[in-house]
Amino acid sequence: MSRWVRLAARNLRRHARRTFLTGSIVVVGFVAVTMTAGFVSQTFTSLGAATIRGTGGHLRLLDPRAAGKTDDEASAILLDDWEGLSALLRKDSRVVQAMPKLSFFGLVVKGDKTGAYLGTGTIPGLERGASLASDTVVSGSFFSNPDADDVMLGSGLARAIGAKTGDLVTVMTTTPDGGLNAVDASVVAVLSYPIKEIDDRLLFLPYRAAARLLKADGRANTVTVLLKDGVDLDAAARDVARELAAAGRPVVVKTWLETAAFYKQVKMLYVAIFFFMGLVLSTVVILATANTMTMSVFERTREIGTLLAIGMERGQIRTLFLLEGLILGVVGSVVGAVASFVLRFALNASGIMLPPPPGGTKGNLLHVELIPLAYGLGLAVMVLTLLIAAWWPARRAARLNPVEALGHV
């Protein structure tokens, strides 16, 4: 076999211009596969981080009664003694923080203007570092006093009621027992949330003010848990559920992926685009390479006739052309891998800022990730593509009539 490989390599060197053109197609295809995979992976990472910050943590803890219920149904069920839960969670070395959240809705009033809101009661110090809210302040400052009757409004909601920082507004809602309650709060910040539908209804209160408003002191709709980087999410969720159940505090534990419908949709869209691009790329490489190798058969007709005339078998002729395609695929992929490394290094060092991911407010530095699987897949795709492209010309060469081939001009 080594003799045939050397012969195929010699043929490629003899036709250096054609080999260079075909190899260039392979190199570009390989670079396109690996760089696209690295960019898409970075996009998933950025979008995932933005989604985690949007929910305030990696895990959500719900009351056991919320199991099997929809999000709307689960939001009406409150966890008791969230501080006790947080104390238990802090014993786990993987947990950074545990933060209660109260969800409520109602009307916010300023003068004669009223707007409907979707509210969240949260701990200011914990919310600042865990969620996107602190990055979206466009007026005023993120609230910091956990005991103050302060409020932060989405910019769309603030415009609707004509409120600005420093104004006093009245926040009204229905308590879990069906009563009506209200609190007067000072607007300390206006937020510009990236999703308009949320921005038009967004309202934040410190947890204590929200608990007084809802008459739900010590309770929360959910406790969000922020984990350290690199932690196995599913394993952490299982361990947290088991540890809390053993401590007599059973809960429903959901990972951020289970509730991130938007993230899943965007990821599926990107995967579909990447798959389609791969099909187009493979088709282009196959057609371009097949055309080049078909021309090679035409130009080498007399050579093939001579080989057949001196006793070379037709199967060996076919194998020779397939080996040429195989060598082109392997060598082109190796050169493409080197080019990908160089291009990746140059782009990552360029300092280019990307626009914010969907649901995000800040762009990220371009960082094309290194995906070893993409390099392996690129090699497999390019080699397979070259073999497919070489098959028809190889078949045609093997079926030539030696007499007619020797007389070809």
> What percentage of the residues does DSSP assign to strands (E)?
15-25%
Structural class: alpha+beta
**Average pLDDT reading:** 83
Which outline best applies? Answer: elongated
Contiguous runs where pLDDT drops below 50 for at least 5 residues: none
User: What's the number of helices?
Assistant: 14
- As laid out across the biggest beta sheet, the strand order is 2-3-8-5-7-6
* Total domain units: 2
Helix content: 40-55%
Q: Report the count of strand segments.
A: 10
Largest sheet: 6 strands, mixed, barrel
Distance between the termini: 32 Å
Radius of gyration: 32 Å
Order of helices and strands: HHEHHEEHEEHEEHEHEHEHHHHH
3D architecture notes:
Strand 2 and strand 3 form a beta hairpin. Helix content is 54%, strand content 18%. The chain has helices spanning 2-14, 16-55, 71-74, 82-89, 124-130, 155-161, 196-199, 207-214, 233-246, 261-299, 301-309, 314-348, 372-398, 402-406, and strands at residues 59-62, 95-110, 113-122, 137-140, 150-154, 168-174, 180-191, 202-206, 222-227, 252-255. Strands 2-3-8-5-7-6 form a 6-stranded mixed beta barrel, surrounded by 4 helices. The chain has 14 helices and 10 strands. The chain has 2 domains: 2-51 and 263-406, no CATH class; 64-250, no CATH class. It is α+β, with helices and mostly antiparallel strands.
Features:
409 residues, alpha+beta, 2 domains, 6-stranded mixed barrel, 18% strand, elongated
Summarize the SSE layout with pairings.
Blueprint: H1 2-14, H2 16-55, E1 59-62, H3 71-74, H4 82-89, E2 95-110, E3 113-122, H5 124-130, E4 137-140, E5 150-154, H6 155-161, E6 168-174, E7 180-191, H7 196-199, E8 202-206, H8 207-214, E9 222-227, H9 233-246, E10 252-255, H10 261-299, H11 301-309, H12 314-348, H13 372-398, H14 402-406
Helix pairs in contact: 1-12, 2-10, 2-12, 2-13, 10-13, 12-13
